[in-house]
């Protein structure tokens, strides 16, 4: 049985994410045209738990590989970067603009021990794949602790 550190704010972060997604889906037209609200965007991810590793797939279409930064610290995986806006075309009359631009960042808590030196990330065809190899629980040895009284 694994011990998982309880984070009282995790539920609030999930609620905030859900509310932000609700507003993003329903007010996207306003956000694109006003410009000053379009400071960031979110991207979909799939996270899969296998016996050997945690696998993360993130959809980042239109993002240059050099503009993506992945970090892992204190059991927190962070994906951040920027999708740069395309140059405006002179004389072009856009009928609809829905694609989001700007910086993005998402973090995920990983509740299993990870071999940090073996984490790998690969970006191809707009999909970022991150592999977080798990520490082998069987290699952890049990330590007996003497209780003093």
Poorly predicted tracts of residues: 28-39
**Which band does the percent of strand residues land in?**
25-35%
How many domains? The number is 2
- Figure out the total of helices: 2
Strands of the biggest beta sheet: in what spatial order?
1-2-7-6
The name of the CATH architecture of the largest domain is Sandwich
* Helix percentage: 10-25%
For the record, the CATH class of the largest domain is Mainly Beta
- The SSE string, one letter per element, is HHEEEEEEE
**What name does the CATH topology of the largest domain carry?**
Immunoglobulin-like
Q: What structural class is derived from the secondary structure elements?
A: alpha+beta
Q: Characterize the overall form.
A: elongated
Main beta sheet strand tally, sense and closure: 4 strands, antiparallel
Radius of gyration: 20 Å
- Alpha carbon gap, first and last residue: 28 Å
Number of strands: 7
Q: Taking all residues together, what is the mean pLDDT?
A: 80
Topology overview:
Blueprint: H1 10-26, H2 28-34, E1 45-49, E2 53-59, E3 68-73, E4 76-83, E5 102-109, E6 120-124, E7 127-133
Antiparallel strand pairs: 1-2, 2-7, 3-4, 4-5, 6-7
Domain SHSP: 36-148
Organism: Pelotomaculum thermopropionicum (strain DSM 13744 / JCM 10971 / SI)
Protein name: Molecular chaperone
């Amino acid at each position: 049985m694994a011990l998982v550190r309880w984070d009282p704010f995790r539920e609030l972060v999930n609620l905030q994410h859900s509310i932000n997604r609700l507003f993003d889906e329903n007010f996207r037209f306003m956000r694109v045209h006003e410009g000053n609200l379009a400071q960031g965007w979110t991207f979909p991810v799939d996270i899969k738990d296998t016996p050997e590793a945690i696998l993360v797939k993130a959809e980042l279409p239109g993002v240059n590989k050099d503009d993506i930064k992945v970090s892992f610290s204190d059991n927190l995986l962070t994906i951040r970067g920027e999708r740069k806006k395309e140059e405006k075309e002179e004389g072009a009359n856009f009928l609809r603009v829905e694609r989001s631009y700007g910086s993005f960042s998402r973090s995920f808590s990983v509740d299993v021990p990870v071999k940090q030196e073996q984490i790998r990330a690969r970006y191809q065809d707009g999909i970022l794949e991150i592999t977080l190899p798990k520490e082998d629980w069987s290699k952890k040895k049990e330590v007996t602790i003497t209780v003093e009284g």
